[in-house]
């Protein structure tokens, strides 16, 4: 599909317009027949065809000259004299609705509640709004380019025209009562301005909305995520930064999971460069890791002129790459790939990523050796050629182009990135999930003691109360960093800052006590109380008591949670950096 089916108009409107047109035609025909018969019954009244049509048209303006004389009138005319004014009234009402449509939509947008707000004129903003509307959300769009009448009719969501960074415009879009805000303009700085304005407008809300800010540079996106992670404890706003490549790479393996080859390693080829390559490599390894230890090994060949450099950078930032799969770099460009012999052994999946998507697509279409080497599919990520992807991959009645026996797959990055559920899996959500996954591995290992049944399930089936507990643990990272004199930064390779890990060990008891006290407050807020044994139905927990009264093994579990913090962060590409040996004081600006 070029775009999700959100822009389709509702069939009810077309039926109403069809009935409206039928009423007008019936009134005109009956009026013509009635006047013709009436005038034939009055031979003293001279008339011709134009007179009959003129009298017929007069019915629509609530009167006609032949009615100046008393009846009786033919039944056709009796019906038409009431139906025609009804058509006129409907026409006036429809004209008024169209003339006042912009004002009505402005009022509806301002009074909207629990809606989704999409800010921006970009292609991604339009596609995201369409997808959200198709998913059943109430959508309000803020953009600087005016909406046309046909666009209002085709896209049934509400629109506000104006500067999306203006507080007045955002109030007019109902921002103080929105549940989710997406800042997706073509300018990153304007996206940040939208987030700043939103933060000021929703300070007094008990449950502030989520704010997602699109960033076009992947390195800047990671850096901003690190800074947000360090400030999350000082703001109640659920804010995250996202890059479309990261979201689309996660969506790829959900829509097209890697096949597991029996009795041999699964082989994947990632060839070429481009922005999508790094996200694809990392998410491929992460996807394979979630398949479990029982899955056969994964072999990834990275082929590009800078493959060695790229692999070194990716492995230094994401240490789990070396354990999740076997990645081998080959410093070859695309032209040398076909004749190099790398394709002889075959691959279960091939990805061709290039900075210019047309070059990559042309290479795939002109290289039959790729089709022969692929046991599965050959993927080509595209950003601007979603329509061509739809031509290849329509349904059985609308496939316009041959998919090479199902092997060729154009992957529309922007279309797949317009997934609100994946965007909502922000850094807080992903870190919370990692914490839970570590908990499962610790309690499922050999000789481990299983945890409570409610917690021994995958994240997707975990009760929402336990998910909130993990998210609260992540949001408290900022307070722990402040206590340590450390900050979070994107990993740059090496073993990391050893002094940061030493700082954790030096203050392990203090941090474990603080974490336990935070957990007790969070559980008490959920209605839990002390009780033995644990009873999830009655919300009783034996660990809900002061730190000094805990058993040594429970205290050690809290210490292990603190010690795991560097590993949890490294999985998402971050590391701890110690700035000072003393605990800093939090600076506060005016009014804070």
Provide structural commentary:
The protein has 592 residues and is an alpha/beta fold. Helix content is 49%, strand content 14%. The protein is built from 26 helices and 16 strands. A 6-stranded parallel sheet has the order 3-2-1-4-5-6. A 6-stranded parallel sheet has the order 9-8-7-10-11-12, with helices on both faces. Helix 17 links the parallel strand 11 and strand 12. Helix 20 packs across helix 21 (464-475). The chain is globular and about 115 Å long. 33% of the residues are buried. Mean pLDDT is 85; it is low at 1-9 and 586-592.
Describe the secondary-structure layout.
Blueprint: H1 11-40, H2 49-58, H3 75-99, H4 101-110, E1 116-119, H5 123-134, E2 139-143, H6 149-154, E3 158-161, H7 167-172, E4 180-183, H8 188-201, E5 210-214, H9 218-231, E6 238-242, H10 244-255, E7 266-272, H11 276-290, E8 298-304, H12 307-317, H13 321-324, E9 326-331, H14 334-337, E10 347-353, H15 357-365, H16 368-373, E11 374-382, H17 386-392, E12 408-412, H18 413-417, H19 420-424, H20 427-444, H21 464-475, H22 477-484, E13 486-490, H23 498-506, H24 508-525, E14 529-530, E15 540-541, H25 552-563, H26 565-571, E16 574-578
Helix pairs in contact: 1-2, 1-3, 10-11, 20-21, 24-25
């Amino acid at each position: 599909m070029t775009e999700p089916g959100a822009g389709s108009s509702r069939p009810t409107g077309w039926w109403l317009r069809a009935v409206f047109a039928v009423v007008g035609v019936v009134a005109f025909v009956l009026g013509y027949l009635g006047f013709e018969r009436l005038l034939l019954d009055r031979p003293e009244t001279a008339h011709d065809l134009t007179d009959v049509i003129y009298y017929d048209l007069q019915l629509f303006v609530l009167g006609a000259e032949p009615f100046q004389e008393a009846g009786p009138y033919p039944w056709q005319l009796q019906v038409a004299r009431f139906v025609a004014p009804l058509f006129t009234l409907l026409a006036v009402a429809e004209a008024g609705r169209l003339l006042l449509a912009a004002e009505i939509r402005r009022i509806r947008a301002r009074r909207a509640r629990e809606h989704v707000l999409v800010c921006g004129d970009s292609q991604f903003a339009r596609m995201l709004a369409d997808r959200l509307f198709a998913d059943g959300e109430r959508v309000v769009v803020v953009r600087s380019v005016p909406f046309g009448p046909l666009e209002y009719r085709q896209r049934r969501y509400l629109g506000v025209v104006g500067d999306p960074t203006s507080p007045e415009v955002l109030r007019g879009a109902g921002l103080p009562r929105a549940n989710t805000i997406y800042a997706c303009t073509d300018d990153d700085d304007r996206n940040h301005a939208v987030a700043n304005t939103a933060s000021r407008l929703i300070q007094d809300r008990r449950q502030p909305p989520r704010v997602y800010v699109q960033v076009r540079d992947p390195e800047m996106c990671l850096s901003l995520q690190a800074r947000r992670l360090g400030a999350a404890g000082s703001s109640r706003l659920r804010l995250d930064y996202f890059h479309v490549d990261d979201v689309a790479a996660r969506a790829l393996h959900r829509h097209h999971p890697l096949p597991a080859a029996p009795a041999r390693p699964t082989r994947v080829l990632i060839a070429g460069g481009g922005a999508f390559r790094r996200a694809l490599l990392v998410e491929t390894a992460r996807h394979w890791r979630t398949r479990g230890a029982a899955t056969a090994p994964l072999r990834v060949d990275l082929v590009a002129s800078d493959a060695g450099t790229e692999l070194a950078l990716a492995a230094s930032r994401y240490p789990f790459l070396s354990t999740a799969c076997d990645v081998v770099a080959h410093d070859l460009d695309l032209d040398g790939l076909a004749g190099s012999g790398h394709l002889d052994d075959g691959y279960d999946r091939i990805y061709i990523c290039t900075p210019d998507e047309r070059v990559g697509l042309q290479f795939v279409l002109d290289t039959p050796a790729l089709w022969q080497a692929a046991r599965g599919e050959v993927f080509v990520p595209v950003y601007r050629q979603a329509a061509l992807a739809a031509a290849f991959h329509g349904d059985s009645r609308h496939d316009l182009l041959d998919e090479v026996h199902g092997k060729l797959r154009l992957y529309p990055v922007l279309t797949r990135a317009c997934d609100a559920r994946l965007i909502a899996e922000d850094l807080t959500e992903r870190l919370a999930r990692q914490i839970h996954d570590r908990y499962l591995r610790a309690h499922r290992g050999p000789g481990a003691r299983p945890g409570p049944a409610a917690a021994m399930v995958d994240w997707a089936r975990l009760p929402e109360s336990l998910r909130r507990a993990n998210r609260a643990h992540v949001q408290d990272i900022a307070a722990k960093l402040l206590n340590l004199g450390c900050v979070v930064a994107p990993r740059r390779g090496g073993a990391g800052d050893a002094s940061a890990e030493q700082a954790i060990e030096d203050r392990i008891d203090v941090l474990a006590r603080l974490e336990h006290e935070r957990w007790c407050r969070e559980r008490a807020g959920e209605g839990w109380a002390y009780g033995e044994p644990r009873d999830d139905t009655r919300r009783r927990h034996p660990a809900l008591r002061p730190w000094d009264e805990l058993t040594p093994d429970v205290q050690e579990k809290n210490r292990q949670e603190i010690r795991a913090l560097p590993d949890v962060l490294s999985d998402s590409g971050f590391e701890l950096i110690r700035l000072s040996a003393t605990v800093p004081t939090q600076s506060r600006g005016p009014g804070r």
